[in-house]
Design brief:
Helix content is 3%, strand content 68%. The protein is elongated and about 60 Å long. It starts with a strand and ends with a strand.
């Protein structure tokens, strides 16, 4: 997994930390973000459940002072930066179009975010964390197009943008977005076995002020974009 872009800020006077440039995320990480999915279809209706771990952890010696929630981690200090943002998602889709194995399904998802982000001296003498749990409504598009009897293209997209507390599941005004999108090319090897190449983007933004954030002024600004390439086999 590669982190394309990742910045975070806690507190209006806090440091805007560029994780890729200064936080040790300028390397490839093992794709520990396995996706656990289950689905049930009845006619044109399908319900899915997804659990998506998302953990990026790095150890760095800071080049500059880092201020998080009013706490200063000085330049030159060794720190553990832990970014954990797994989510659970329940989705419903309806087959709007279907012809043979090709189809287009539209629906909605409800995602539960479960963030645990912390900054810690390697000797354990200083520690700051920020936790957040909340629901996020999402629009879902899923489909596949078979080029012939052996080859297909497929996509699975969950995405949404909200700028009000009514839509984003918070109890305060908050601007946020989420995008989990994949594009897959598959080849049917036998009647029961296929191979595929998949590209997946996972990212999102969150910006706003909360009285319950734990920071001095409640301000948070978090922006993340990741990409993963995978090759695999699937039993049908």
């Amino acid at each position: 997994m590669g982190v394309i872009f990742h910045t975070i800020q806690f507190g209006q006077t806090g440091t805007v930390l560029n994780y890729v440039k200064d936080g040790g995320q300028d390397i490839l990480f093992p794709y520990q973000n396995q996706r656990y999915t289950a689905g049930l279809s009845i006619g044109k209706h399908t319900v899915y459940f997804l659990y998506q771990p998302l953990t990026v952890q790095s150890k760095v010696q800071l080049k500059n002072d880092l201020i998080v929630d009013g706490v200063t981690f000085p330049a030159g200090s060794g720190n553990l930066l832990n970014y954990v943002f797994p989510f659970y998602r329940v989705s419903y889709t309806y087959d709007a179009l279907r012809k043979g194995n090709s189809y287009l399904a539209l629906g909605l998802s409800l995602q539960l975010r479960n963030a645990d982000i912390y900054f810690e001296f390697l000797d354990g003498t200083k520690f700051v964390d920020n936790k957040n749990v909340g629901p996020v409504p999402i629009i879902k598009v899923k489909g596949a197009y078979w080029l012939n009897e052996k080859v297909y293209l497929a996509t699975d997209i969950d995405g949404f943008y909200a700028s009000s507390k009514f839509l984003n599941g918070a109890d305060f005004d908050f601007e946020g977005s989420v995008l989990d999108a994949s594009l897959r090319a598959g080849l049917l090897l036998t009647d029961y076995l296929e191979t595929y190449f998949n590209v997946r983007f996972i990212g999102g933004t969150a910006k706003g002020t909360s009285e319950n954030s734990g920071s001095p002024d409640g301000f948070t600004d978090n922006r993340l974009a990741t990409i993963n390439f995978s090759i695999g086999f699937q039993l049908k």
